[in-house]
Every structure is written in structure tokens, then in C-alpha cells.
């Protein structure tokens, strides 16, 4: 408190001026998270008028790191959590896992963790909104987003993969085999990773001198059904593709079924590339050529970044971990080559 506050302006006076209760003023003074953003701003302004200064508290270590995932049903999420859990254990933390199906809103999770106490947060794909980030900043609790769905604010730590390069590598591999009619079935184009993979696909075509054909780009959602529907459409074109770059391994799996239902074979009639390298990819018939994402490493790096931000040790950059093209039997030269 400043000298003016020390002379004895009661909290009751501040509460009356701000139109709130005394406990609410106390919560704001102590940087408690369970106050709405609008109320906090009003109370802080009134406190300042009466000579009070709100200082962020130094939170005590809890030994906990929280991670939030939209689902644990997919091999993608399981791999990220596995990497996070191993690194948390190595650093002496307990990892608290929350499964919340909303991919866009993690505000209630942030509030709960701050009320309970945590040493840091790892949010898988979901970017906290501005009020949630402000609450984290007030309490000096770091948060890291893994593979953010939307472009994060410049001050937000994140871990991603080289999605653009992965799209380039997948498409360039097919070009190198002699394919010219190369299609893609994307992820949801409101997501940054899907846009980056599509941009990589288009870049590789431009580099090879192959003209763009909008009929060969089908929008999907990374799911199996989208792969099936997209491939069914593409195979029905008057001039169908000889190869498909799928936005995910699940999308490739759906496309594989559509190809077989059309009486065609992979790779003899159509080459297929996935993205992720789930464990099942090597066991498909034929084994799937795909772009491997370093999912375990992404989870591990996120926890490392939380620890570094918490302790002020080491760099806290926004790394993109390298993808890798894994060539298997689902790609071959186009028919007639």
C-alpha cells in the first residue's frame, strides 16, 4: 500500500465507492482469480483513487502442472500427453489431466486451476482468451499452448510442428514419383495447422511448375468421414487425381476405403499420403506413407517451457519441431509410368 492507504482509508469506503462488497475488494487486493474482469477493473481504479496499489502475489509452488486436452480418444492427443507426463515426472511434477471437449473455450479450466493452485498450464490446441491470459499474468502462472488452433498472441508461449514443411515434403514426394494430378483433403481451414499444410501443398506444386486446380482441393476436418467423402468426390471427377495428400492419417484411412469401394488399388491406381504417423499407419494395407509429427516431443517441450518460465531458467521461445516424411508402400509412380 502507498502512504495514503497506510493513513487508514477503510476498505468499506473503497467498497462503497466501487459499488461492491468488502470481500470483493479484499479479493482484488489479493489478486484472487474469482472476480470478473469488469469488476476487477472498477475496483482497481477505485483502490488507486484511495491510494492503494495492488501487487501481484508470489504464488507458492504446488508441484502440479495442468494439461487440458479436447479428447483422449485419438492417438494424437495420447502421444502429446505421454510426452508431457514423462517430462513432468522427470522434473518432479505431478501432471493433472483435464479432458474438455470444447476446442475453443478453456476459460473455466483456467479459473479452476488458478483457484486450486498450479505451477503452470499446458493447453492442447485451445488458445486461452484475453481475460484468461490476464488472470494468468496477474498470478504469474505460465501457460503453453500445443499446436494452437488459432494464431496465438505474440506474448503467448506455444509449441508446434513444421506443418508447412510437412505439406511441402508430402507433395514433393509425389511430384518426384511423376504425379501431376495431385489432390489434397485438408483439415478445417479455420485452424492454423490445416492452413499451413495446404500452403505447403500449394508451394510444392508451384515449385514443380504444376498449375493449381481448385477441383483437387477438398476441405475436411481431419476425420475419417471427411477422407471418405473427399476421396469419393475426387474419384468421381472427369479427370481424377493419381495421388492424394490427406490432412491427417485418419483422413487417409477414410480415403483408402473410398478408393477400394471404387474398385481401385493403392498405390497401383492411386497414391496416398497421410499426416501424423499414428502407430496404426505402419500396419495398414498397404502401410501408409505419411508425415510424422513429433507429438511426444511436443508434449515434453511444452512442460519444459512451463518449467523454464516458472523458474526463469533457459530460453522460452515458441519452437516449431521438425516433421519427417516416412515413405512406405502407399505411394508409387502413377499408372503408365
Describe this structure in words.
It is a single chain. The strands form 2 sheets. A 6-stranded parallel β-sheet has the order 2-1-3-4-5-11, sandwiched between helices. A 6-stranded mixed β-sheet has the order 7-6-8-9-10-12, sandwiched between helices. The longest helix has 17 residues. The N terminus is likely disordered. The protein is α/β, with parallel strands linked by helices. It contains 12 helices and 12 strands. Helix 2 crosses helix 4, helix 5 runs parallel beside helix 12 and helix 8 runs parallel beside helix 9. Strand 8, helix 11 and strand 9 form a beta-alpha-beta unit.
How would you concisely characterize the structure shown here?
By secondary structure, this protein is an alpha/beta fold.
Topology of this protein?
Layout: H1 3-6, H2 11-18, H3 22-29, H4 37-49, E1 64-69, H5 75-91, E2 94-99, H6 107-116, E3 121-124, H7 130-138, E4 143-146, E5 157-161, H8 163-176, E6 182-185, H9 192-207, E7 217-218, H10 224-235, E8 243-246, H11 249-261, E9 271-276, E10 289-292, H12 295-311, E11 320-321, E12 324-326
Parallel strand pairs: 1-2, 1-3, 3-4, 4-5, 5-11, 6-7, 6-8, 8-9, 9-10
Antiparallel strand pairs: 10-12
Amino acid at each position: 500500500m502507498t502512504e495514503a492507504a497506510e493513513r487508514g482509508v477503510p476498505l468499506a469506503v473503497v467498497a462503497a465507492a466501487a459499488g461492491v462488497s468488502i470481500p470483493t475488494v479484499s479479493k482484488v487486493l489479493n489478486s484472487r482469480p474469482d472476480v470478473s474482469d469488469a469488476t476487477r477493473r472498477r475496483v482497481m481504479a477505485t483502490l488507486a483513487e484511495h491510494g492503494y496499489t495492488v501487487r501481484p502475489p508470489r504464488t507458492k509452488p504446488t508441484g502440479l502442472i495442468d494439461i487440458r486436452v479436447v479428447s483422449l480418444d485419438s492417438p494424437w492427443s495420447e502421444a502429446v500427453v505421454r510426452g508431457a507426463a514423462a517430462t513432468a515426472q522427470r522434473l518432479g511434477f505431478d501432471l493433472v489431466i483435464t479432458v474438455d471437449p470444447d476446442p475453443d473455450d478453456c476459460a473455466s479450466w483456467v479459473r479452476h486451476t488458478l483457484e486450486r493452485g498450479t505451477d503452470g498450464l499446458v493447453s492442447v490446441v485451445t488458445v486461452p482468451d484475453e481475460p484468461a491470459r490476464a488472470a494468468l499474468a496477474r498470478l504469474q502462472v505460465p501457460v503453453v499452448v500445443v499446436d494452437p488452433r488459432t494464431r496465438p498472441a505474440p506474448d503467448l508461449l506455444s509449441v508446434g510442428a513444421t506443418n508447412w514443411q510437412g505439406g511441402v515434403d508430402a507433395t514433393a514426394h509425389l511430384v518426384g514419383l511423376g504425379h501431376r494430378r495431385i489432390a489434397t483433403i485438408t483439415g478445417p481451414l479455420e485452424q492454423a495447422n490445416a492452413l499451413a499444410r495446404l500452403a505447403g501443398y500449394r508451394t510444392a506444386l508451384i515449385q514443380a511448375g504444376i498449375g493449381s486446380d481448385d477441383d483437387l482441393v477438398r476441405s475436411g476436418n481431419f476425420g475419417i468421414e471427411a477422407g471418405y467423402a473427399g476421396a469419393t468426390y475426387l474419384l468421381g471427377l472427369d479427370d481424377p487425381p493419381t495421388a492424394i495428400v490427406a490432412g491427417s492419417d485418419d483422413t487417409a484411412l477414410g480415403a483408402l476405403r473410398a478408393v477400394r469401394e471404387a474398385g481401385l488399388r493403392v498405390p497401383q491406381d492411386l497414391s496416398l499420403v497421410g499426416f501424423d504417423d499414428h502407430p496404426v499407419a505402419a500396419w495398414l494395407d498397404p502401410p501408409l506413407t505419411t508425415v510424422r509429427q513429433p507429438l511426444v516431443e511436443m508434449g515434453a517441450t511444452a512442460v519444459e517451457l512451463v518449467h523454464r518460465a516458472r523458474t526463469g531458467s533457459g530460453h522460452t521461445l515458441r519452437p516449431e519441431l521438425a516433421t519427417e516424411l516416412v515413405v512406405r508402400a502407399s505411394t508409387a509412380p502413377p499408372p503408365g509410368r
